[in-house]
Amino acid sequence: MEFIDYKNYGKCVKLSKGGKTMLVTVDIGPRVIFYGMDGGENIFYEDHDDLINKGGEYFDTNLPGKGIWHIYGGHRLWKSPEYIDTYYPDNSPVQVKEEGNGVIFTSEIESTTGIQKSIKITMDEEGNAILEHKFVNCAQTATPPIALWTLSVMDKGAVARIPLNTEDKGLLPNRNLVLWSYTDIKDERLQINNDCVILSQKNIAQPIKLGMFVKDSVCVDVKGMKFTIDFDCVDGDYADYCCNVETYTNDIMLEIETLSPIKSLQKGESAVLISKWRLEK
What we know:
By secondary structure, this protein is mainly beta.
């Protein structure tokens, strides 16, 4: 682990193993802002020009001095269901702590939700990574039902492949496909097969988003590399009509997203969602 300055993101922690490099912001976020082969390209989108942000009356009234929310790019941890308080402006410095073979990046306690978020990152000898995403309820009361929501913002040209369940359930359904109101089912970027859904990022401004309940790993092809996310598929209630994987794209980027079961966190209670990343040429 070493500290470096990276572009307009300020101070970052650099993690390198097995021919792969990861950069995590500490002046803001946290964001895994870079992941790629040593000396190679970043698989993640970087929002240098601040094209994606959210502000307005809610932020001025409830978050004075915090600024507006910026996507920044890279990989982030969010709260689902998606309400306005999901967009907490994570513009403050991040606590960094080495623990065992990993590094923990912890944000400030959110004044509007009482949640403190952290991501613990451990890289193996091949440069693949385990990310332990964590919520802690630091409020004096229980939270409403919430889920951990991890979003990896992939760069232009990315193609996401999301497996669908092919198990024969007899008279019962075996898969779901959830559509957002702005999604055109005939969109040329979307391909629905019996065993998978494929979503491609193209220069089309109209956004498209869909969700599924997935039992296998999801993968994204980007810049000649294959990025795979493995995660535990556990029983429980899920948000967005039972989705544990969602994907979104527009003319700027493509997001691949995973979610934990949704539940209320009591005072001091925590919840964890673990992802395993693999990156291959």
